[in-house]
Amino acid sequence: MTFPSARLQSLKADPANSGILRSLDYYYGNAGHDAAMDALYAQFVKPGDLVFDIGAHVGDRIGSFRRLGARVIAVEPQPLCSRAIGALYAGDDDVVLIEAACGASEEPVTLYINSRNPTVSTASKDFVAAADGAGGWHQEVWDTRVQVPAVTLDGLIETYGTPAFVKIDVEGYEDVVLAGLSRVLPALSFEFTTIERPVARRCLDQVAESGSRLCNLSMGESMRLEFEDWITPQAMAEHVSALPHEANAGDIYCLVEPSR
């Protein structure tokens, strides 16, 4: 299912959305990129599956999951982004939007918003500190702080059921999100950055303890897996540690079983 393009154009034309215009331009309207994204996620998501999109931003991954026939629970704490998602997917009963952060508990959290580049807004003050002075991050400023409600993965599962796949992209807060999960999931992904490699290590330790034994990697927005043969969480941790700073970011994919 796709939304009418008029909704996207209406969002772009609204001056109130100037802060997310760059994201809307980047993440929507590139058919080749969408096709590659769908091919990547089709390895983990089948028609009728339930998917959690944690850190949905402006909802481009929601679009991919819906094109693949999945039901989506989208969690996004930034008001501007959540309003965009609500407008784009209005009337789609298979998209549930939760305006909250996802964390280790349901206690409210402080969200550090980057108004100029909302895609790197975060609930992690350590992430903000790590970016300070780091190469490629000099122009980033987190200029607003807001308190937002929080949910946990366990709580979402209790309410909506066990997902076939969980995508986590929360700018250095991924390990805190996984701390709110006490169950084994078939497959998940989480973002990592080279300015916060210890977060990736903690995430890999957490998924290994929960039963994930196969990992792969997609760098940046390449929408392709780097390894033909999946590797162990320990091997992935070593690989991430060896990446150059300029690699910047990617998503690590984790599986319990080789295939579903």
From TrEMBL:
<protein>
    <recommendedName>
        <fullName>Methyltransferase FkbM domain-containing protein</fullName>
    </recommendedName>
</protein>
<dbReference type="InterPro" id="IPR029063">
    <property type="entry name" value="SAM-dependent_MTases_sf"/>
</dbReference>
<dbReference type="Pfam" id="PF05050">
    <property type="entry name" value="Methyltransf_21"/>
</dbReference>
<feature type="domain" description="Methyltransferase FkbM">
    <location>
        <begin position="53"/>
        <end position="187"/>
    </location>
</feature>
<dbReference type="InterPro" id="IPR006342">
    <property type="entry name" value="FkbM_mtfrase"/>
</dbReference>
<dbReference type="InterPro" id="IPR052514">
    <property type="entry name" value="SAM-dependent_MTase"/>
</dbReference>
